[in-house]
Amino acid sequence: MHELEEILGAWGLSASSHEPSPITNGFINRTFLISGAKSFILQRINKQVFRQPEVIALNLRLASDYLKFHHPDYTFPGTVPTLSGEELYYDREGYPWRLFPFIPDTYTVNQVDNAEQARIAAAGFARLSRKLSGIDVSQFQESIPHFHDLGLRFSQFERALSGAEPGRKAQAKGAIADAMSFSSLVKEYEMLIQRGILNRGVYHNDTKINNILFDRLSRQAVCVIDLDTLMPGYFIYDLGDMIRTFVSPVDEEEQDVSKVSVRKEIYEAVLDGYFSEMGDVLRSDEKSAAAFSGRMMTYIMALRALTDHLNGDIYYQIRYPGHNLVRATNQFQLLKLLPVTI
Ligand code: GN1
Ligand code: MG
Q1: pLDDT at 2 over 80
Q2: In the prediction, which pLDDT does 41 show?
Q3: Tell me: the pLDDT tens digits for 71-98?
Q4: Which ligand gives the minimal distance to the CA of 145?
Q5: Which alpha helices (DSSP H) does 71-148 contain, by range?
Q6: What is the CATH T-level fold of the domain 2-67+78-102, as seen in this structure?
Q7: Of 85, 83, 81, nearest in space to 101 by CA
Q8: Which of 32, 68, 83, 308 has its CA 20 to 30 A from that of 187?
């Protein structure tokens, strides 16, 4: 915590008046709630994952300027500049940090409880893309290049497989077989893109329900958070990641895969909420990729966790040996259960 004093100082804050406490549910960045008369969220960006943090800052500025002008009533959580007017503060080890205002009277949820909540959250993510649908996408850059490129993720998996330590490979035998058995999804993905069926737009790319702030009283969506991957992409990334993370009553951390299931009413609520905002932004042939989206995003996360397991756990934070393999097995189970058509 000592190091935080210096970092807080960049914004003229001090740990004596603003108590930092860690928030631990992300896999990538380090996040703290800074509680005081006015509270903040302080976050250290993982520089191994986000190799060009300035790109995050650029994308956020483009979106924020556009929204302020075209949709002034829309709540978009911008960063608080440092005392010297910068969006990022670099610590002694070269890690970038940024500060957000804490939005009071809001709460987050980690798991979807009911269809209404799913519908509200899906509409919340979709609203952001709809509000940004008139923006010039070409101004944006990818904060993680090829982030949801299924072809690339599959070849990273193949590379990890050929270089894997034999023990890890043996342990992952079932998951490797699953990875191979779904590889036709890669072709399907590439075909959708090559045929120009999907339009590029600005998407959130990490649409777990805990990235929505809900209003304490009305229980409506106040805003969307965790905008590091707000960047060019396709709607299947956002809709698909919601299907992946909303429909099962247990998340990807669950070790008992018999608990993984597809709650039909939640699946329908996700589609309903999403298309209530994005329905007329997307073309109808594009919308026909909705069922594919959930399968594709579940497959990509299964592949990424399996790849990390085979590589010796170098990307995601793990809490026990075999954690990444649990995540992969869990996601393959979900993939087997997701409907192929709606
Ligand atoms: C990572 O750290 P978190 O939970 O926001 C990952 C997502 C994965 C997710 C697994 C930059 O997000 O792509 O879906 O873990 N983010 C990055 O749930 O790799
Ligand atoms: Mg995230």
Answers
A1: no
A2: 95
A3: 999 999 889 999 999 999 999 999 999 9
A4: 1
A5: 115-131
A6: Phosphorylase Kinase; domain 1 (3.30.200)
A7: 81
A8: 308
